[in-house]
Amino acid sequence: MTLFRKPIPIEEALIKLMQFPKQIEEEYIELTASAGRVLSRDVYASHPVPWFIRSPYDGYAVRASSTKEAGEHNPIWLELLGIVAAGDVWHGTLQEGQAVKIMTGGAVPDGANAVIMRELTKEEERDGKTFVQLKRKLKEGENISSVGEDIEEGTRLLTKGTYINAGVIALLATFGYEKVPVTRKPKVAIIATGSELLGTDEPLMPGKIRNSNGFMLYTQALRSGAEPISFGVVKDTFEQTLETVRAALKAADIVVTTGGVSVGDFDYIPAVYKELGAELLFNKIAMRPGSVTSAAVLGDQLLFGLSGNPSACYVGFELFTRPVIRTMLGMENVYLQKVEATLKQDVLKANPFTRFVRSKLSFEGGRLYVQPSGKDKSNIVSSLPGADCFMVLPGGTRGWQAGSMVEVVLIEGQDGMREWK
Ligand SMILES: Nc1nc2c(c(=O)[nH]1)N[C@H]1C(S)=C(S)[C@@H](COP(=O)(O)OP(=O)(O)OC[C@H]3O[C@@H](n4cnc5c(N)ncnc54)[C@H](O)[C@@H]3O)O[C@H]1N2
Ligand code: MOO
């Protein structure tokens, strides 16, 4: 058996992989629980917004024609008939020479077609009646929110695949969505393989390290919109690995393992794929870190064999697993967004393969800069917390000097505030 694996370009690996993500069914969930989920249906306006004529100001609703003689030196007086608060309706039809006091959001009475702001008027009592003084002409439709001004009935407002943010929630609430149709979260099983791995509660022992990738992948799956299911740690034995992957396939749509995917004596993932009868899509990609990233397909399920090295594992998930999850969610933009930034410091490293350097962005003088967020080896964990992007250094180069423009793919804002979709 040859251990040599021929690396394939990233694009080729993605083309192979992206034939397989399955479409996930929808479910209805509470509006308040829908933030961060993905719409499974288009949303149409079932009524216009506003659906009745509304006043945008506290003031007086009038007929514009009643004000045509009004001017700075020619005040006119209109008889005040009543008051409409927001939520109320004034029954009757306003005539020439009449006014109704109205609050912001109030329904403009029939017959009225303009509103004057309260500050531009004054009220006066005369002979038991109230009059309102205007010193300016109003145009028909002035200060009126017309029916459908915001949204016309029947408009397609949101398309299936839309990420639900606060604005989407506002729109759904406007149309009375108590329950929202969303795609079910794909279930992603996470298995950390390695006899050297300890739990976070265990003391360090010779030759052992703590499992950090399991927790990291759990978080990456969560922020990609999936439902992670942790299968903990398995020892490097073929039987245990096979048994756990089998159990994970029963519970999840996608199975992600970390470690055991290379050519070591105890790297059992390739053999497990074989035993399961899964079709191997790739097991070597022309990239660093994460060259050992593997994927296989079994029926409608995908298996990812990510590196055990923390940075390689992280990059492998973002570049390959995340777009699969987002495709299953029905999203349109499934890949990480690309921008260009100015390199802040020399990054001089020979790149036989395309290199994804964990990096951080900064703005200075309105310009976007990028620099590595720490050490750049695949077994490094310390550069991950500060990374909000990967700097992409193309294969076949010897790196770049400070001041060069480089391509950057965005991952997550450091303040957790950005929604990279
Ligand atoms: N002869 C060769 N050796 C290696 C090759 C190669 O092509 N030929 N590739 C190297 C590259 S590149 C990588 S990346 C690693 C990938 O190895 P595996 O994915 O099989 O991972 P392991 O050997 O199981 O572990 C690698 C490293 O990571 C640590 N690890 C594993 N799991 C975790 C975890 N859950 N949390 C934290 N750290 C973990 C593990 O202890 C090892 O130190 O192979 C190279 N070798
Ligand atoms: O897959 Mo290894 O991480 O290329 O560095």
Automatic annotation (TrEMBL):
Entry keyword set: Magnesium, Metal-binding, Molybdenum, Molybdenum cofactor biosynthesis, Transferase
Pfam families: MoCF_biosynth, MoeA_C, MoeA_N
E.C. code: 2.10.1.1
Keyword Cell inner membrane among UniProt keywords: no
Keyword Metal-binding: yes
Reaction catalysed by this enzyme: adenylyl-molybdopterin + molybdate = Mo-molybdopterin + AMP + H(+)
Highest taxon of source: Bacteria
Entry's family note: Belongs to the MoeA family.
Protein name, UniProt field: Molybdopterin molybdenumtransferase
